[in-house]
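debug: dumping io for the single-chain case to check the tokenizer round-trip. Nothing else runs in this session.
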Amino acid sequence: MYLAEKTTMDEPTKQAWLEIGKEFSNEITKYGRPTGE
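debug: decoded output
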């Protein structure tokens, strides 16, 4: 994970970022933009 390499992150923080990432992907998918997967 990119952020984890730049700074120390505890587990709850890491989980929160993963959730944000998932939400972000869902929003992009909803609006019909390719995510590159």
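debug: round-trip ok. The chain has one domain: 1-29.
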